[in-house]
Amino acid sequence: VVALPAVALLILFGCLMWADDTRERERSAELRSGETVTVVYRILGLAVDCETGMRGYAATGMPLFTEPYDRAVAALPAEMQRLRDLAPSAAAELSFLDEVLRYQRSMLALLRAGKREEAVARIARQEGKILMDAFRLRAARVVAQVRREQIVRAEQSSRTRRILTATAAVGSTGTMALTITMLLGFANRVTGRLGALRDNSERLQRGETLLPPIGGDDEIADVDRAFRAMAEALEEGRLALQAANHDLESFSYSVSHDLRAPLRAVNGYAQLLEEEHAGELGEDGRAELAVIRSEAVRMSQLIDDLLSFSRFAQRTISAAPIDMTALAREVWSEIAAPGEEISLPPLPAASGDRAMVRQVLVNLLSNAVKFSRGNGGVRVEISGIPGAELNTYSVRDHGVGFDMRYAGKLFGVFQRLHSESDFEGTGVGLAIVQRVVTRHGGKVWAESKPGEGARFAFTLPAAREDG
Amino acid sequence: MSEEVEILLVEDNPRDLDLTLRVLRKHRLANRLLALSDGAAALDYIFARGEYAGRDGNSHPRVIFLDLKLPKVDGLEVLREIKSDPRTKLIPVVMITSSAEERDRVSSYTLGVNSYVVKPIDFDSFAKTMADLGFYWLAVNRAAQ
Lengths: 467, 145
Fold this sequence. Notes:
The structure holds two protein chains of two kinds. By secondary structure, chain A is α+β, with helices and mostly antiparallel strands. Chain A is built from twelve helices and seven strands. Chain A is rod-shaped and about 195 Å long. Chain B contains five helices and five strands. In chain B, strand 3, helix 3 and strand 4 (93-97) form a beta-alpha-beta unit. In chain B, helix 1 crosses helix 5 (123-140) and helix 2 (39-46) runs parallel beside helix 3 (75-83). The model of chain B has no long low-confidence stretch (mean pLDDT 91).
């Protein structure tokens, strides 16, 4: 994350270094230019001194006038050397000085040889002036060249400065922007990866396929890998459970189809035996056949009850608000005989699977009626107490009741607390009640004393006010 | 068989078949009954093919009593073939089975079964149910054809 902005910063730093170096070089070039011009003027001055000295000597014939000439000639080599150091091309241009000096030397030689007229004649022919003008021209050209170079350099320098200023501005802003972008990108990436984790947990909840692995080697990737392993284990468990459920389903399907046929044959042939061979069987034989027949029917009832229990245990719950008062009234009208009383105040609405909750009421109310009949009239009381999450409903009867010592066995499959000769039934009803109630997230319990009736209570989720 | 078949009974359990025939005979409903023991034979008969290639394919039983679990071709498949063929779809089909399973009932009615009956275990109820069915489909009901 920090690599890219760091590289950008290094590049910017490099640019600034280069700029500084360039300015340094420009400054020394500028100094050299100034000095070059100075030296050129100085050389020109010395050349003029030479010429002046030589002409003074020629005009007056007095060697005294050669003194500036001597001084200038003595000073010139050093100046020329200086110029060669500063600007070799300028020195080359001004090497014409040698021509000038050679002419002056030859003039001095003439004068010293006493040939003054000849020397004056040459001066009058402007030989010296022509040479000096040519030299001046060259010096001017050299100076002009240096000035041109200076102007070019100044332009270049100002362009460089502009570029530099722009580079610095763009560079620093860019680096800052880059840094911010990278940081935001990093934060985004972290947020995105965390988001993928959250998405996956939601997908797992809904049973959808997970997103592709997050990848990388940070803690988020570790969590992702662990989450995937967990989801896989969960899926394996789910498949195993599904297979078991499927087996159970085919088992109960086969039971429902195949276990009944033999019972029908047992019952049917026993009946045919009784009809067709009644004379040979006698009273006892007929009674025993009746037992065979009724046991076959009871076995079939057991099969039905067991199947119905397994269906209630497996069925998916489709929850909706239930008007418990109306449901209880409906069930009561189906199971009660004339003269049997019920007290049914308004009950709080529940939330659940109507068909399943209906079975709970059917089983509890039929039990209440069954165990009350023959115990001094049937009087059943239903009541309901609303709760924040769960409502509590109870069914109270004044029947035979049961011994609380056996309360633990009450809700087991095929568990009976009364003998079959006293009360019919297969012992599946309360098992179904418990299964339905617990699958709705509620619980069921009972209290009683023998001979004093029983009270069965259960809780169900309360229906939400807004429906 | 020179006379037309009135009831086609498809039942693989010999005990159930025997008990059913006894009841129907007792009520003189089995005179023109053909009993077959698997779904493939039932389809051959209904579509006049295979073993029954020689019979008049335009002559149909007045009702078919069909068991749900059958060897070779099961009852639901037999029902599907009968109800999806324009020549045979008007023949009344009654599913007579041991199973009260909701999914069997839903599948049968979805495929167009005319009635679905669960065989009672108790013989008195069984006898009454079978006799009622015979009377109803042969004497009371008016078929499309």
